[in-house]
C-alpha cells in the first residue's frame, strides 16, 4: 500500500473520530440544556416544590428527612405556608421539628408530620390531586380526609420488629377526598369501581409515587383497603409503589 492511500485512510479515521467527538459534545450540551429546562430531573437543581416532578424529585425529598432545616428552606423557597412545632418524644418515637401545612385542605385538621412528608404532600396536592380532579370532575378537591400521621408503634402494631414510619410522623394515611360540590370519594367504597372515582383514586396513587419513598394502596394488601399510606423512608435507588 503506497503512502497516499495510507494517508487517505488515516485522514478518514480521524474524520470519524472528530465527528464522533462532535456528536458526543452536542449530546452533552443538549442533555445539559434539557436538565436546565426540567429541574425535577436535574439532581443538581435546587428543589422547588412548584416544579413538575421528575426522576430526581423523590430522592431529593427523601434526603430532606434527616435535614429539617434544609427542608424548611425548601418550603420557604416554594412559598408554602407552614408552621414548625417543638420536637417531642424520645428514642424511636422522637419527632424532630414536626411540620404542619397551614393551607392544606386536610380534614378534620392538618396533622404535624416530618417536614419531608409535608413537602411531598404539597407537590402531590398541587401537581397530582388537583389536576386529576379538574380533568376528571371539572372541579377541585376541597377536603382530604386522613387517618393520622403520628403513632408510636411498630409495623402493623406488632410487639417486635421494625418501627413504623408513623412512629416519627414520617408517614400519613389518606382515606378519602371531598370535592367542591360535596361529593366524597373514598378508598374503601370506590377503589374497586370501574368509573371516574376509581380512575381518580388510581391517579392519586400513581402521582404520589413520584414524590414519596413509600406508597401503599389497597392493591398492596387488605390492611390498606381503606387508605393510602405515604412515607419518606429511604430505599436506596427508587422507592416502593404498590
Stretches where pLDDT falls below 50 for ≥5 residues?
A: 31-35
**What's the story with the biggest beta sheet?**
7 strands, mixed
Oligomer: single chain
Order of helices and strands: HHHEEEHEEEHHEEE
**Backbone structural class:** alpha+beta
Number of strands: 9
Distance between the termini: 66 Å
Q: Helical proportion?
A: 25-40%
**Proportion in β-strands:** 15-25%
Overall pLDDT confidence:
87
What value does the Rg take, in angstroms?
24 Å
- Number of helical regions: 6
Structural domains: how many: 1
Form type: globular
Q: Can you characterise this structure?
A:
This is Extensin. It comes from Parerythrobacter jejuensis. InterPro entries: Extensin-like_C. α2 runs antiparallel to α4 and α4 (115-137) packs antiparallel against α6. The chain has helices at 3-37, 57-63, 68-77, 115-137, 187-190, 196-208, and strands at 82-84, 99-101, 106-107, 141-148, 171-179, 184-186, 214-216, 228-231, 240-241. Mean pLDDT is 87; it is low at 31-35. The protein is an alpha+beta fold and 242 residues long. β3, α4 and β4 (141-148) form a beta-alpha-beta unit. Strands 3, 4, 5, 6, 7, 8 and 9 form a 7-stranded mixed beta sheet that branches. A two-stranded antiparallel ribbon has the order 1-2. Helices cover 38% and strands 15% of the residues.
